[in-house]
Design brief:
The protein has 212 residues and is an alpha/beta fold. The protein folds into 2 domains: 5-114 and 197-211; 130-195. The protein is 48% helix and 9% strand. It is elongated. 42% of the residues are buried.
Length: 212
């Protein structure tokens, strides 16, 4: 095991998959107080990929600042990690990936863009993140699968759905797009759809590996 490395992850990158890439101490999505508990084990590096948003209080800024003050290297990306890194990178937290950059440049601002629901036992995703949906719909538009009006309708429909119920199936069902286009879009998503949060989670592991 990579000595002194603690990583909080869950639905964005399952711990079992992460362990095959980087052997570390993997813990469930971070919540309020979890970083303080982690500090008791005197880690050299802490990585945040996933965190809780509404189930219980989110990880506090002061917890991360305390870790940084103690000389712990802190890396964030993908989900809660990206949000906190965009807020605390001036204090030394390292942010990586598309989601982090999107928060940093103001392209997205709300935790609604990355929030999902998942099975706490298996970390299986039960909804889809808005940021991945938006990215994939835009790619479908770029490839001529949908029109600009259809793109607008899909993005507005996805945004209007409360995040625990936000799935591609529901967005397509609630949108005003004809069946032929929906079928083409489903085919595109199955073949070329990207999971932005998963890709960013892999970058978090790569960054931590480079710090070791």
């Amino acid at each position: 095991m990579a000595k002194g490395v603690i990583i909080f992850t869950g639905p964005s990158l399952h711990p079992d998959e992460a362990k095959k890439i980087l052997d570390a101490d993997y813990r469930p999505p971070v919540g309020r107080g979890d970083v303080l508990i982690a500090l008791q084990d005197k880690p050299d590096i802490i990585g945040i990929i996933d965190g809780v948003f509404h189930q219980k209080p989110a990880v506090a800024h002061k917890e991360i600042l305390k870790a940084l003050d103690q000389g712990v290297k802190f890396v964030g990306g993908s989900s809660m990690g990206a949000l906190r890194a965009s807020e605390l990178d001036d204090f030394g937290m390292i942010g990586v990936g598309k989601v982090y950059e999107s928060y940093k440049n103001g392209e997205i601002e709300s935790d609604d863009d990355v929030a999902v629901v998942f099975n706490p036992q298996t970390s299986e995703l039960l909804s889809q993140p808005l940021i991945s949906m938006t990215y994939n719909f835009n790619r479908a538009f770029d490839e001529g699968i949908i029109s600009s009006e259809e793109l607008k309708n899909l993005n507005e429909t996805a945004k209007s759905i409360y995040y625990p119920k936000r799935t591609y199936k529901k967005v397509l069902k609630d949108s005003n797009i004809d069946l032929t286009k929906k079928n083409r879009l489903i085919e595109f998503l199955e073949q070329k759809g990207k999971d932005i949060k998963r890709e960013d989670a892999l970058l978090v592991l790569k960054c931590i590996e480079s710090l070791l």
